[in-house]
Amino acid sequence: MQLLEERIRKDGIVKPGNILKVDSFLNHQMDIPFINELGKEFKRRFADAPITKILTIEASGIGIACLVAQHFNVPVVFAKKAQSLNLDGEMYCTKVQSFTHKRVYDVILSKKFLSAEDHVLIIDDFLANGCALQGLMEIVKESGAVLEGAGIVVEKGFQNGGDSLREQGIRVESLAIVDSMTDDSVSFRKDEWD
Ligand code: 5GP
C-alpha cells in the first residue's frame, strides 16, 4: 500500500536486531486519520469475507484493530497477556513467544467472546516469525470459529512467519511487506494491490 510505504520511508526507524520502529504514527503515538485509511484498505481486501469479529493481541494491536473494526462494523476482542494463570475453564489459553521482548507469555481470552458461530479476522501491527499469529490461531481453533484470515500492517518478509502461514493455507494480507532494511533504507516487496 503506497501510502503506508511512503510513511515508513519517511518516519520509520531501523533499530538493531531487525526491529523497525514506527512508533511515531502506528503503535505508540497513533495517527488516527492515517490508520483509518489502513482500516479502509483491510475492508477492501476482505470485502468478500463474512467477518463477525476482529481478534488481536494486547497491547499494540488494540488501537489499530478498533479503527479497522469500524469499517467492518463488528466488535474487537483482544487476547490478554496473563502474568499468572488462574484458569477456571472459562478462558481459551495459549502461549506466545514475544519477538520484541524475547520471552514467552501466557495469553488468554474469555470463552464468552469467541464461539463456533464466529468468522474471525485477526489484525496485528507486525508479522515477523509468526508466533503472535500462531497463538491467536490456536485460540480461534479451540473456539471452533472460522478463521477468515489475517490483516497485518507491516510484514517483515525476510523473516519466515508470513510465508509459512501462507503455506499452511492461511489468507494473510499485509499492507506493506519489507524485503530488506538497512540503517537508512527500507525496501518493499511489490504489492499486487497497488
Ligand atoms: P512475531 O510473533 O510474528 O515474531 O512478531 C510479531 C509481534 O512482535 C508483533 O505483535 C509486534 O508487536 C512485534 N514485532 C515484531 N517485529 C517488530 C518490529 O520490527 N517492530 C515492532 N515495533 N514490533 C515488532
How many distinct helices?
A: 5
CATH architecture: 3-Layer(aba) Sandwich
Strand content: 25-35%
Radius of gyration: 16 Å
Q: Major sheet: order of its strands?
A: 5-6-4-3-7-8-9-10
Keywords:
single chain, alpha/beta, 5 helices, binds guanosine-5'-monophosphate
What is the gist of this entry?
The protein has 194 residues and is of the alpha/beta class. It contains 5 helices and 10 strands; from the N terminus they run H-E-E-H-E-H-E-E-E-E-H-E-H-E-E. It is globular and about 50 Å long.
Written account of the structure:
The chain has 194 residues and is of the alpha/beta class. It has a single domain, classed as Rossmann fold (3-Layer(aba) Sandwich). Helix content is 29%, strand content 35%. An 8-stranded mixed β-sheet has the order 5-6-4-3-7-8-9-10, with helices on both faces. It catalyses: XMP + diphosphate = xanthine + 5-phospho-alpha-D-ribose 1-diphosphate. Its main location: cytoplasm. 5-phospho-alpha-D-ribose 1-diphosphate binds at residues 128-132.
